[in-house]
Amino acid sequence: MSDWILIFDGAPIREVAKGEAVFRQADQVRFMYLVRSGAIALERPLPDGAPLTLHIATSGMALAEASLFAKTYHCDAIARSDAQVATLDRATFLTAIHNRPDAALCLIETLATEVQAQRARVEILRLKRVADRLDAWLDLYGRPSKGEWINVAEQIGVSPPTLYRELARRRN
């Protein structure tokens, strides 16, 4: 099966500095994006100004693919680190998917995997205790590599200090 990412071969690359927006909520959807390096967060500002992180796209991931058939974006895309983003006009991307059914199937498989991960995250976030959230996450994904615990904290919806307290409690 052909990899849908190959559709972006030769696409222009946009350099995005940490903190810079790729797009903003209510901007017109004109492009399909592929994160080549770095991390881009899809965020929706809450009434108090704090961002609600909906998703973080990293290298090799599509960005805001759920907006492909929308008129406007429903959130902001903010670089969490310096990043490179490949950009294709939406019509060009859709034509390529239409002309390459194998790439379309590969994209569907990728998106189905992401839906499964989001459903698991929702169930983890429904758990009340930090210990239960951590246990559920570890059951699904196993122990993270060194330096990745901070990402686990975000994925299970707790602050890093809260997670580190739970880890320390388990060591004792």
UniProtKB/TrEMBL annotation:
One of its GO terms (molecular function) is DNA-binding transcription factor activity. GO terms for cellular component: cytosol. Coiled coil: none annotated. CDD domains: CAP_ED. InterPro entries: cNMP-bd_dom, cNMP-bd_dom_sf, Env_Response_Regulators, RmlC-like_jellyroll. This is Crp/Fnr family transcriptional regulator. Transmembrane segments: none annotated. Residues 7-114 form the Cyclic nucleotide-binding domain.
